[in-house]
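Usage

Read records sequentially. Each one opens with the input sequence:
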Amino acid sequence: MKGGSRRTGFTYSSLLLPSLVLVALINAYPLVYAVNASLHDGSLIQQGDFVGLGNFGSVLSDPAFWASTRFTLIFVVASVLGSWALGTVLALILRIRFPGRSLFRVLLLLPWIVPIVATSTSWAFLLGTSSGALPTLFRNLGLGDNVLFLGDPVLAQITVCVFKIWISFPFTLLMMGSALEGIDQNIYEAARVDGASRWQQFTRITLPMTARTTYVTWILMAIFTINDFPSVWLLTGGGPVGATQTMVVYAYNLVFSEFLPGLGIAVAILITGLLVVVSVLLYRMIRRSFTIA
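and closes with the structure output:
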């Protein structure tokens, strides 16, 4: 019996091995090429001279890199927590039965379904000029004569974060909605019998029992946000004066605007390291939630 199981396992491994090798090669070649390019001072058409870790030193000594890193962290924290909070609140609301709930659920998915080009163009039309709808509203309410949401560095950063929350909350809505569906309603009934308030039910039942889904959502959203290029590029292009330039946009500008691929790829490798750190930290939170459970 053991011999048969061993032969079956060997057969399965033999069948999977070619696919695993192919996937490894497909992912390994770009990685090796990128690391090699980051160690050379080349251009888009030639490798250039070997400079070792010189590109990383140049990047780490560039104030623009640290400015983009700082905004990336702000962008990630605001987007992850903002979209998660909004998605969780809406998921809780959708658990209440009311007329038109199915239509409301579909409408809430539109920010995620509509192409990013259309959404960013709409937001730029509403906010980008002094004649836009929102600046005009602010002017009529006496809140400012010339409020430029994409022209002021601080307002542009806030706008980009709100825009990311807007296009991302449907994803967290689906994740948290599925987690809420898995909670036994008898637990809430017992809590109400014991006199627990709605806030106590939320903090003592809902949050702990959806913690695993929450951490997975945070990991995925953090990865999506750090790697998000079109949201920032299409809305502000990284401006004004680099205020909304994330690490990804900074790397893109180095490669395709300043034609310094070695520096740009060095930034991309640093981004990968940041993603690994964020993923490991959140993964430990997931394991801790399993241990507590």
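Summary fields computed downstream for this record:
- The domain at 62-292 is CATH 1.10.3720.10 (MetI-like fold).
- The CA atoms of residues 2 and 8 lie 10 Å apart.
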